[in-house]
Amino acid sequence: MQNKVSLHLEKEGQLLSHLGYYNNLDDAKEQADSIGLLHEGCEVIAECEGRAYLLTDDWEELTDEYEENQPTWEQEWEDFGEVYDDDPNYI
Q1: Is 44 exposed, middle or buried (0-12, 13-18, 19+ CB in 10 A)?
Q2: CA–CA separation, 53 vs 87, rounded Å?
Q3: CA separation (Å) from 20 to 4, 55, 79, 86?
Q4: Distance CA 3, CA 41 (A)
Q5: Whole-Å CA distances, 70 to 65, 74, 88
Q6: DSSP β-ladder status, 51-55 and 59-61
Q7: Rounded to 5 degrees, what are φ and ψ at 87?
Q8: 10-43 burial, b if ≥16 CB within 10 A, otherwise e?
Q9: 46-83: per-residue pLDDT in tens?
Q10: What percent of the chain has pLDDT above 90?
Q11: DSSP readout, 29-89?
């Protein structure tokens, strides 16, 4: 979904719910505001074209901070590599 805004709800860095795809940040904010997603302790995050935004009163870019908190591919592989087995024995 190129050039779409992916909107999701997080709490303490954990994904709670994917809220859908929107045409732009304004549409995503309107949707988040309309369903009252600014719950205590939860964050509404939008991602688009490699950038991440936090919804406060408006969108605050947090791409650098967001990327810093993401695991490296090595950590992902260590944690979930067996899930992505390229040569499973059961086939």
Answers
A1: buried
A2: 38
A3: 10, 15, 27, 30
A4: 29
A5: 9, 11, 27
A6: antiparallel
A7: -135, 65
A8: eeeeeeeeebeebeebeebbebbeeeebeeeeeb
A9: 888 888 888 877 788 876 655 556 666 677 666 665 55
A10: 10
A11: HHHHHHTT---TTEEEEEEETTEEEEESSSEEE-HHHHHHHSPPHHHHHHHHGGGG-SS-T
Are the CB atoms for 6 and 18 separated by under 8 Å? yes
Contact 9, 19 (CB under 8 A): yes
What sign results for the dihedral spanned by CA atoms 50, 55, 15, 77?
positive
- Could you tell me how far CA 69 lies from the centroid of its own chain? 12
Residue 10 β-bridge partners: 15, 43
Spatial CA neighbour of 3 closest among 16, 19, 20, 21: 21
- Backbone dihedral angles phi then psi of residue 37, each to the nearest 5 degrees: -90, 0
3-state secondary structure of 25: helix
Spatial contact of 63 and 49, defined as CB atoms under 8 Å apart:
no
